[in-house]
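Task: encode each sequence below as structure tokens.

Item 1
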Amino acid sequence: MWTREQVAGTIDHAALKPNLTDADIVAACRLGKNCGVASVCVRPSDVVLAAEQLAGFGVLVSTVIGFPHGSNRPDVKALEAKLAIADGAAELDMVMNVGKFFSGDYDLVLRDIRAVVAEAKAAGDVIVKVIIESCYLSPAHIAKACQIALAGGADFVKTSTGFADGPATPEAVAIMVQAVGDTMGVKASGGIRSYEAACGYLDQGCTRLGLSSTEEILQAAPVK
């Protein structure tokens, strides 16, 4: 079984609901610091505040790009990425253009990812995670989306925004790990509600978890 500290170090604590206030973001950052998570993932307009709150604590600021539907134009996503990095984001969770993917316009999906990756790489070591919304995809489509993300230069593939029609599943994660797990990180996100489920995804090969119930899940960790 994974220790509490090990699990915490893989968590991107999500603070993305549309009705969150500045006080809620401050509280999310406090929780992130107290729990020792990898990052606190906030909305783009909250990056400056989160960066101020997390400075010097070893917890990164992550944010979302093209969230939650992924249908923004590539140049809009690129600008959003550039501004987020300037505001203090160290990691970018971008939503794949699912509609164009289903339309078979893989070239646009690839250009979309590359546009964000280009901004990240120009800034140095900023990480890009591509959200593929696995709940909409067949097994073959999951593998295809992962390959496009890899070709686009992204660092991670991620299951879900948490705002679509379904959560992460072990079945989707297994396909993602098999497709690109040797060369990219895999992040399970959406619907993870227990410590056992979190550990299960880590056992499968995930190296990041997207959680909003971080404190409750970590409190269920076994006592040494």
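Item 2
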Amino acid sequence: MININWQPLQNEFQQWRDVDMILPIWWRDDDAIAPTPALDMLDNIACDTNIPVHLAIIPKLATPALADHIHAMPNVIPVVHGWAHQNHEPQGIKKAEFGATRPIETCIEDAKAGLDLLKNMFGTRLKPMFVPPWNRINPDINAHLAMIGYTNLSTYSPRKSRQAAIGLTQINTHLDPIAWHDGRGLVAPDILISEIVKQMQDRRLGRADNTEPFGLLTHHLVHDQDISSFIQQFLTIMQNGPTTIYTIP
């Protein structure tokens, strides 16, 4: 287990307690398609910390075995991760499956197909949250998502408004511990903790929306031991702080 100095976060916790504030927290993990040892480890962390993980599943690639596997995992909450996790943007544009260069009609067809397929696989266990691959979506699509049955949209970074569209609540993630452009290992813990504290300060001082659950974003298929250790420690410490755990209703 890696040694992490959590004291700056504990200090911020005390500031929250002093003003009787509570931080809502939640956890999202992306790119599930099949049962794997990595998924089992993710579930173990969810059970150990008693914090459910919202598992973003790629509909087109999801195997029937995944549904059977998750059936025995009450701390895993399935949500919809696009359709095929396929990039449709031209070279030089940041990757997106539901970006501005695709016809909106095609995007909506894929989003509906994903919702319908995973409803058939998971039944009422599935929550109608849409998680666009790479956390990018053409905002013109949002209103259509609500009309086809989605109630929540989740990307990355603090939301600009509570509603992404009428009937569609924005619930983002805010902390990603993976160094995607530097070997895919753990970002330096002091940097991660500094980011957590900064975002908590923004909420405590009214510069950010504290009604939005603070979201941890993980990707179980690429976790190494240090990343898994950070996640477990982070969730344990957050659970013991001035927090409340959020799950999609």
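Check on item 2: Residues 9-241 form a domain with the TIM Barrel fold (CATH 3.20.20.370). The longest strand covers residues 23-32.
End of task.
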